[in-house]
Amino acid sequence: MAAASFPCLQSDVGGRVERWCALAVGAGSSALATWLFTLAFGGGDPLTPLVLQKLQPLIAILAARLFLGERIRGRFWFFAVPALIGTWLIAFADPLHIQLKGAEAALLAIGAAVLWAAGTVLGRRLSVAYAPTTVTTLRYAVGLPASLVIAVIVGGPFTVALADVPGLAGLALIPGLLALSLYYRGLQRTPAARATLAELAFPRSPRRLLVWCFCTPSSPSASGSVSRSWWPR
């Protein structure tokens, strides 16, 4: 996949702006953002990065307005606000008593949120110029060497246990390849401001999977919250 996508970077399809968008999405929104978010947990406080990651939709909505010229109508907020509140309730067992600790963790989490929000907005720009499969391969092609550079800088391991290979392959193919292909297919026809709200379904989906697959009960706040990420055109 990575090798097949490199000719797209050299072609005239989409223009120079789209090439820079591909580099930003692959290196920034994939590799660097994941690394920053992981570092944010290093201080031992998991709440700070989780809370500040909730800024991502707001940043994406603002960026979509500034860089893509998307119009944000008044009725948009009738759906956006309940979706954001619902995600907050789902994410935390005690959503009314959250304490932030550590400026370093906060800055790292905000950096990750900004990069992920940029990935949504720039991904929308790429989805207009390229086919969904091309955008997916571009993200892998740029993200893979960027991840390698980060691993070299931080001194991370380059090998995995043989027993972990099937699980890693499943992660790469299903929540990786398949999910990204569907995501960019949807971005072709979905404004970035709406797409970032649709992404709020993510914290709800794992809870349902835990209940269905492992019979793990959800928290009261998750069970009582409903977030809508769609609305009429």
Top keywords for this entry?
11 helices, mainly alpha, globular, single chain, 233 residues, disordered C terminus
How is this structure best described in words?
The chain has one domain (2-223). It is mostly helical and 233 residues long. Residues 218-233 have low confidence and may be disordered. The protein has helices at residues 2-10, 15-40, 47-53, 56-67, 76-91, 103-129, 132-154, 165-187, 192-198, 204-214, 220-223. Helix 2 packs antiparallel against helix 6 (103-129), helix 4 crosses helix 6 and helix 6 (103-129) crosses helix 9. Helices cover 71% and strands 0% of the residues.
- The rounded Rg comes to 18 Å
Main sheet?
none
N- and C-termini, Cα separation: 35 Å
Strand content: under 5%
Q: What is the number of helices?
A: 11
Helix content: over 70%
Q: How many domain units? A: 1
Query: Overall mean pLDDT score?
Result: 76
Show unreliable segments. Answer: 218-233
Morphology call: globular
The H/E string reads: HHHHHHHHHHH
SSE topology sketch:
Elements: H1 2-10, H2 15-40, H3 47-53, H4 56-67, H5 76-91, H6 103-129, H7 132-154, H8 165-187, H9 192-198, H10 204-214, H11 220-223
Helix pairs in contact: 1-7, 2-6, 2-7, 3-6, 4-6, 4-9, 6-9, 7-8
Summarize the structure.
This protein is mostly helical and 233 residues long.
